[in-house]
Amino acid sequence: MTAKEEKTISAIEEQELFTFAEFDEEASERTGYSNYSYWGSTIRVFLKNKSAVTCLIIMISLLAFTFIQPYLPNQKNPITVHLDPNTGRQLMNHPPSKEYWFGTNSIGQDLWARIWSGTRTSLLIAIIVGVWEVAFGIAFGALWGYVRQLDALITEIYNVIHNIPTTIIMMLLAYIMRPSFKTMILVMCATGWLGMARFVRNQIIIIRDREYNLASRCLGTPTSRIIMKNLLPYLVSVIVMRIALSIPGTIGWEVFLTYIGLGLPIDTPSLGNLVNEGRRLIMSPSLRYQLIFPSAVLSLITVSFYIMGNAFSDAADPRNHW
Amino acid sequence: MIADTREVLVEVKNLRVEFKGKGKKPFVAVKNVTFDIYKGETFGLVGETGSGKTTIGRAIIRINPVAEGEIRFKGQRISGIIPKELDREVTRKIQMIFQDPMASLNERAKVDYIVSEGLYNTRNYKDEKDRQAKVEKALLEVGLLPEFASRFPHEFSGGQRQRIGIARALIMEPEFIICDEPISSLDVSIRAQVLNLMSSLQKEKSLTYMFISHDLSVVRFIADRIAVIHKGEIVELAETEELFRNPLHPYTRALLSAIPVPDPRVEREKKVLVYDPRVHDYSVHKPKWTEIRPGHFILGNEAELSQYEKLLAS
Amino acid sequence: MSEPILSARDVVVKFSLRGQILTAIRGASLDLYEGKTLAIVGESGSGKSVFTKTFLGMLDANGWVDSGSIMFEGMDLAKLKTEREWLKIRGKKIAMIFQDPMTALNPLRTVGMQIQEVLELHQGLKGEEAKARTIEILGQVGISDPAMRYHQYPHEFSGGMRQRVVIAIAVACNPRILICDEPTTALDVTIQAQILELIRGLQKKLGLTIIYITHDLGVVANVADDVAVMYAGDIIEYGTAEEIFYNAQHPYTWALLSSLPQLGIKGQPLYSIRGTPPNLFNEIKGDAFAPRNPRALKIDFVKRPPYFQVSPTHYARTWLLDPRAPKVEPPATIKAMRAKYARDAI
Fold this sequence. Notes:
The structure holds three protein chains of three kinds.
Chain A: H1 3-11, H2 14-17, H3 25-30, H4 38-48, H5 50-68, H6 111-146, H7 148-163, H8 166-176, H9 181-207, H10 211-218, H11 223-259, H12 271-280, H13 289-315
Helix pairs in contact in A: 4-13, 5-6, 5-13, 6-7, 6-9, 6-11, 6-12, 8-9, 9-11, 10-11, 11-12, 11-13, 12-13
Chain B: E1 8-19, E2 27-38, E3 42-47, H1 53-60, E4 68-73, E5 76-77, H2 84-93, E6 94-97, H3 111-122, H4 128-141, H5 158-170, E7 176-180, H6 188-205, E8 208-213, H7 216-222, E9 225-230, E10 233-239, H8 240-245, H9 250-258, H10 264-269, E11 288-293, E12 296-300, H11 302-313
Parallel strand pairs in B: 3-8, 3-9, 6-7, 7-8
Antiparallel strand pairs in B: 1-2, 1-4, 4-5, 9-10, 10-12, 11-12
Chain C: E1 6-17, E2 20-32, E3 37-41, H1 48-53, E4 63-72, E5 75-76, H2 83-87, E6 94-97, H3 111-123, H4 127-140, H5 146-149, H6 159-171, E7 177-181, H7 189-206, E8 209-214, H8 217-223, E9 226-231, E10 234-240, H9 241-246, H10 251-258, E11 308-311, E12 314-316, H11 332-340
């Protein structure tokens, strides 16, 4: 207490101070608050993570750029085979130059344009598959985890399907339907949702019997609303993380399928077939650029999504909210 | 003297509840429990962890399935498979208050939704305005401010959250509320608030409570009759003061001696009794659930019953 | 009065939480006398656990002792910074046991190994000698068939038995002070009674000084010689157990005692305190309990009360004890307590 405050106290009648104060019951109720917001804190902690924010910016710029790139001046068509104006022959394996920023490939197509077109294709596939995984995988997993009667049956079916290697299923499907953009999506969707469903089911089993869910059952809440309002909101953070990790995963599968010859046709550039083409030339040092550029983009995407996914999952943990 | 003249609200007959155990044998949580709950009373169920008290409560409200025996509400059987109409009626008339205020509310939903959840299910309101009015009334009845409806549970303290849970149960206009350790997780000074609230609500709305707890001193204060449960069986049941005056079963006596009393001199003098299950010899004569005095039931075989008679006589 | 073995003066502890500073302890003082049991009573948020953690340097990473002193064996514990310095105290001179035994026990190692490890580390015992002593200690804490139990893992023990093991680890090195942070709150009443008896027995045998943290006044009545009542990071009343129970002076202590169901009259509402404890992020002016106190004086909102002496061993921080304050009737329960024991004048 400062000297001034001391004087103020003694200035007020001592009598006055030692009388009863008014008791405001409502004021005492209000002392119980805190205005902590879960999502607010999650976003704040996420934004504090510099590497995650950097990755986020990079990914958004990358995606935006793949759409903007064709409209920039002086861009070339990714499929056009370019001819040397002097000789009239194809400009094969031309190293990076002022004209062709990333060089040309073995047929004479502009690698710069192909990389951006390829990235766009691959990312689109990955995002579409990701959305499907979320929608169907979560719905399926939620029912599987919550409805006890279904659990035994579906677990058996899952075990059977799960034991067949994913690669064989993918190869079979890709072989039956001829390689195309649509086929890729269908193939990935057919196998991708299973992992998400299993994951969601496990999470739901963990929270299914918590008291607030029992309370909802006692109140007669139907299963669909319990899943939508009680269970899923808790799982949003883990689900977001899984989507973040599934995107590089899908691209990885696409690369693999291309490697074994069941990927997208050569006239639809994708990171998969770009990496594949470049792989063939790995032995000659002067032509390695054809592998390095697509690999660099692929690595950048993979690493960024992993970092973002992990950062978000850490941020969503309430224990990190300070 | 109670018993015969009062209306019976809930009857539990030879209840047996099992859970899936390790391997083939099921784990029997509740062995063979029989008791009645009268309209307007507070029935206390006291036991330690693993005694099966929570399981009984959950069996009555139909969360746990019943293996044997039956449960009746106002004369109608409500255990096992029942018609949809009856199920809806039971959902409205029997409600539950849970133990942990931190776990019993949906963190991601507003208080408005939490309290109205039951109303949405039974469509027990005319329109949006009516529903909001009911929510406001429920919150005021438990001593909370109506403006709390737009907030989230994490913004409140434990005692306030428990009151939200009570509002959620009350808005259904129930007749019977099962209170599963409603104050055990609350701070000492908040417990009194919630207990007072529950008592006044009972008087106002003619509610019947089943109060489950491990804390005999709290149950003594609030319950009219107390049943003591040990490892899935009720060992003694009597009017509250009668139980404290004449505890007969060795488990009841051990439990009573162990309660800490907030009085240093009494505590210093106290002798704690230890309950040893081996003191019962049920190999030849099986124990029976007997009414040894009007309203005072006990589990024992013939030899023990004659011992208890002697105790009561002295 | 002998010298206290531990003396805390005006300890202030702050935490950095969600971007703000929270003052968890606002200038608490206490004296601990050898061979006695001090009970610290308070509700959640009162700071009782935080306060005792400062004696062991076990505050969370985002907390620190802002000011004040904690004198123990000539050292000021509030000034210790490095882990090295704390290692000389923790476990050896001052030991602590917690509410959940599984936080102290390693599920992957046998119980015997965990106790033995402590003996080897702090007392230099080796091999057979250490094992024998471990089995002896297991017996001392009431574990039957200790030689066989020595080889078992924590999950093979029940809750009460685990707590006994934790107590065994804590007293293995004969510390001077044992801090018990709500060790029986999660246990059944019958097990609790046994553990309390065990702790009391060990205290007599080993000459331990015990700090017992709890919110349960029944337990306090059972174990305590002296009692300190904490509210919102401050010790608002302290005295011997009898003084606190039979002659409480602070309105918060009155409220705590009156709201106990054991002391309630059936059919009548229990005395209850409205509202909730204050938010410690905000600066608290005056008496922290004032907003919830129907008997608050105007000065309670303005200036923090100092300690007023009720007896050489009994102090309370309330303006009601100031000679200028009006006479206030305590609640019925408190009056009954006082009357009951008035003849044995304190």
